[in-house]
Amino acid sequence: MIELQGIYKTYIKGQLKVPALRGVDLNVTKQEFLIIQGPSGSGKSTLLNLIGLLDEPTRGELHLFGESVQELSDRERSRLRGRSIGFVFQSYNLIAHLKAWENVAVPLYYAGLNRKDRYQRAVAALTRVGLSKRIRHLPAELSGGEEQRVAIARALVINPKLVLADEPTGNLDSKSSRSMMEEFARLNREGVTLIVATHDPFVASFAKRLLVLQDGVIVAANQ
Ligand SMILES: Nc1ncnc2c1ncn2[C@@H]1O[C@H](COP(=O)(O)OP(=O)(O)OP(=O)(O)O)[C@@H](O)[C@H]1O
Ligand SMILES: [Mg+2]
């Protein structure tokens, strides 16, 4: 389902080259629940961004759902992302002037659904993450944990095949973290492939498979 071969990512910052990934090989099959652990700066977000088609590797091969990503046009890549991948960002990326349900509905807008269907699907997704009473709130009127749950609802609203989550429980208390991870585990049982980057050992305890990144390389994996 996901195949990475010899993936390198080097950021160029002025004169400085920052090697974020230095030769990552990884296969992820359908039904996996993979957790990526690693210290700050080890390349976790970079890896998720590449798999989520938000960025391109400097070198290496990436196959997603049987397609060679390098060979796709920008448009094909956006379509693939819009239909199949739900992304929960480390810094939510909610749109400040949109209400909670409108934020959740953004991916549906790109999928061409009408307003009534967008509203119904967005409300269902918000209800699933326990936010049925916050549908018309703006991000600034929500707590950090609630914003995070809106971001998770936005990732789920397209019924993705793959969900990528970057520190999804970073701003949640332990009770909300548990219910979030139970929601992820349920999705995984329903057939969604999950890749979660985290520092949190509690989150890591939900992994079917655990991988540790350090300085841009995989240093340990439990499989
Ligand atoms: N846009 C960028 N431009 C330049 N360097 C970057 C950029 N994004 C990340 N980096 C660098 O790449 C390395 C890996 O960063 P990345 O964000 O992937 O780490 P991370 O494991 O997600 O860290 P954290 O746990 O703090 O979120 C770091 O050294 C970081 O400074
Ligand atoms: Mg990160």
Q: How would you sum up this structure in a few lines?
A:
The chain has helices at residues 44-51, 74-84, 100-110, 115-128, 144-156, 174-189, 201-204, and strands at 2-13, 16-28, 33-37, 59-64, 67-68, 85-88, 162-166, 193-198, 209-214, 217-221.
Structural description of this entry:
The protein is α/β, with parallel strands linked by helices and 223 residues long. It has one domain (2-221): 3-Layer(aba) Sandwich (Rossmann fold), CATH 3.40.50. Helix content is 35%, strand content 29%. The chain has seven helices and ten strands. A six-stranded mixed beta sheet has the order 6-7-8-3-9-10, sandwiched between helices. It has a four-stranded antiparallel beta sheet with strand order 2-1-4-5, covered by helices on one side. Bound molecules: adenosine-5'-triphosphate and magnesium ion. Adenosine-5'-triphosphate (ATP) binds next to strand 1, strand 2 and helix 1.
> Which molecules other than protein and nucleic acid are bound?
adenosine-5'-triphosphate, magnesium ion
Query: Approximately how much helix is present in the residues?
Result: 25-40%
Question: Which H/E pattern describes the elements?
Answer: EEEHEEHEHHHEHEHEE
Rounded to an integer in angstroms, the radius of gyration calculated over CA atoms is 17 Å
Question: What number of domains?
Answer: 1
Kindly report the name of the CATH homologous superfamily: P-loop containing nucleotide triphosphate hydrolases
- Main β-sheet, in a few words? 6 strands, mixed
Terminal Cα separation, in Å?
17 Å
- Largest beta sheet: strand ordering: 6-7-8-3-9-10
Average predicted confidence as pLDDT: 91
CATH 2nd-level architecture: 3-Layer(aba) Sandwich
Global outline: globular
Number of helices: 7
Number of strands: 10
CATH domain class:
Alpha Beta
CATH topology: Rossmann fold
